[in-house]
Amino acid sequence: MTYEGLTGGEVGFTGHKGDKGNAYHARPTAAGKVPGVVVIHHAPGWDEWCAEVTRKFAHHGYSAIAPNLYFRDGPGAPDDVAARVRAEGGAPDDQVMGDVAGAMAWLRAQDNSSGKVGIIGFCSGGRQTYLAACTLKGVDAAVDCWGGNIVIDDPSVLSDRRPVAPVEYTASLDCPLLGLFGNEDENPTREHVDRLEATLKQHGKTYEFHRYDGAGHAFLAWYRVQYRVQPAVDGWKKILDFYGRHLKAK
Fold first, then answer.
1. C-alpha distances in angstroms, 132 versus 32, 173, 224?
2. pLDDT given at position 250
3. Among 3-17, 107-121, 125-139, which stretch is predicted with the lowest mean pLDDT?
4. What is the pLDDT of residue 6?
5. How would DSSP label each residue in 148-177?
6. CB within 8 A of 6, min separation 6: which ones?
7. Rounded to an integer, what distance in angstroms lies between the CA atom of residue 1 and that of residue 141?
8. Which of 142, 127, 147 is nearest to 247 (CA)?
9. Which end of the chain is more exposed for a tag (fewer CB within 10 A), N or C?
């Protein structure tokens, strides 16, 4: 079911350690309770495409919020802010987890909330989605879109900001997981996806992975050269079906 009427705009939310941040929120205007989705943006930052993703979820009957994980690093154009954050080694994991938890709480506090909340992330946001699904309470379903550095070969990439490879937390995963990956991606590679899947199987987790030939990183993002039409169309079908089963089902 889709909702032709929706509303969207910038909102405030309370993130890690009570910090006040900004986010983009979209929701269907039809009456009734709906599930929520937290959209975790990619490394390029809190941008136009991220807002479009929230509106797509609202069109399909979800209240979606995309927290600006870089709000502490502004002001400035999204590209400039993102460049500064990347130069510093990325947003700290504990800070991101606090912000995602705050965004989940914000959704559940809305008058149209059904109480169910899923998370989805792209690129670095896919990694953060996996980490959140393993370490935060109250995640009902998680979608990892080509998250890199979940499995790590080189310990030197770990840092004070990102001290543990998310795969190490797999035993604590407490919700269904969907993963979308391009077989031509360099991070995560096919081998990394294989190893992640083996770990999920080892721990008996509920998951489904879909891999696409001829696709690499960011194949859902229409404005990037990596966009691939057929994998993108199928990927969105997989996402909406997955959330329909785990967030909308009675």
1. 28, 9, 27
2. 64
3. 3-17
4. 94
5. -SSS-S-GGG--SSS-S-GGGGGGG--S-E
6. 26, 27, 28, 29, 55, 58, 59
7. 19
8. 142
9. C
Catalytic residue list contains 217: yes
Q: Say if CB 170 and CB 203 are below 8 A apart.
A: yes
Active site residue 123: yes
Give residue-wise pLDDT tens across range 166-192.
Answer: 999 999 999 999 999 999 999 999 999
Q: Is 175 a catalytic residue?
A: no
pLDDT, tens digit, 9 for 90 and up, residues 82-125? 899 988 889 999 999 999 999 999 999 999 999 999 999 999 99
Q: pLDDT digit string (tens) for 109-120? A: 999 999 999 999
Q: How confident is the model at residue 78 (pLDDT cuts 50, 70, 90)?
A: confident
Amino acid at 41: H
Tokens of 214: 């001829």
Residue with tokens 């993108």: 232
Helices H, strands E: what count in the chain? 6, 8
75 upstream amide cis, omega within 30 of 0? yes
The span from the CA of 219 to the CA of 233, in Å, is 10
Which residue among 50, 123, 134, 175 is the active-site one? Answer: 123
Catalytic pick among 42, 60, 192, 217: 217
Structure tokens at 109: 């506090």
